TrEMBL record:
Protein name: Glycosyltransferase subfamily 4-like N-terminal domain-containing protein
SUPFAM superfamilies with a match to the protein in the record: UDP-Glycosyltransferase/glycogen phosphorylase
Length: 186
C-alpha cells in the first residue's frame, strides 16, 4: 500500500514519536511511505537525526498561537506524490488553512485518516471543516469531544503503542548493572 502521512517527523515530541513508530512499522511491513513534514515548526525540537529518503519537508510554521498557519508552504508534494491513504497527525499543529485548500484533491486520490493528538477540542474553526473518512483517537477522552463535531461512526479508538510492563527484581537488576543498591536513580 502507498501511504502519505503529514506530521512532524524526527522532532522529539509526542505526535512525532507516534508518527515515527507507526510509519517505520509500515515500512517494515513493506508499505511505501511518504512523509510530508515541516522544515521549521515551534513544536519540532531538533533530534539531529538524518531524515529517511521518504521524508519531504515542504512547509514552515513560525507560530501556533492562536492558530497554526504556514509561513511557507509548497503544495506540490501533497498533489504530485502517489498515495492511496493519506494520514494527518495532530492536525491542530499542522498548516490547516493550506491543507484544507488541497483537501478535495487529496480526497479524490486517497482515503483520508486523521490521528488525533489534541487533548481537548481545538479552538481553530478550520479543524472542524475537514471531511475525514476516518478519525483515530487513543481513548474515550478524545472521543467524547470528537463526537460533538464529527460522525461517531467515523471515530475509532486505537490505543497508543506502548511496551508492556515487565516486572522484575529491582535489587537483582541493580546488581547486574553495577548500580548502587540503596540510592535513588533518576
Amino acid at each position: 500500500m502507498k501511504i502519505g502521512m503529514m506530521c512532524l517527523w524526527n522532532a522529539a515530541n509526542g505526535p512525532s514519536i507516534h508518527a515515527e513508530l507507526v510509519g517505520r512499522a509500515w515500512v517494515k511491513l513493506g508499505h511505501q511511505l511518504k512523509i510530508f513534514s515541516a522544515q521549521k515548526h515551534p513544536d519540532a525540537r531538533p533530534t539531529f537525526q538524518e531524515d529517511e529518503d521518504f521524508v519531504i519537508r515542504h512547509f514552515s510554521v513560525d507560530e501556533v498561537i492562536p492558530f497554526t498557519r504556514a509561513t511557507s508552504f509548497d503544495p506540490s508534494p501533497l498533489l504530485n506524490e502517489k498515495y492511496e491513504v493519506f494520514v494527518a497527525q495532530n492536525v491542530e499543529r499542522l498548516t490547516a488553512e493550506k491543507l484544507l485548500e488541497l483537501f478535495p484533491q487529496i480526497k479524490k486520490k486517497a482515503v483520508t485518516v486523521q490521528v488525533v493528538h489534541e487533548g481537548k477540542a481545538p479552538e481553530d474553526p478550520l479543524y472542524y471543516k475537514f471531511d475525514w473518512d476516518a478519525i483515530v483517537c487513543f481513548d474515550q477522552r478524545y472521543k467524547d469531544y470528537l463526537v460533538k463535531s464529527f460522525p461517531a461512526e467515523r471515530i475509532h479508538m486505537i490505543s497508543y503503542p506502548y511496551h508492556t510492563l515487565k516486572l522484575g527484581d529491582k535489587q537483582k537488576a541493580r546488581k547486574k548493572l553495577g548500580l548502587p543498591q540503596a540510592e535513588k536513580i533518576v
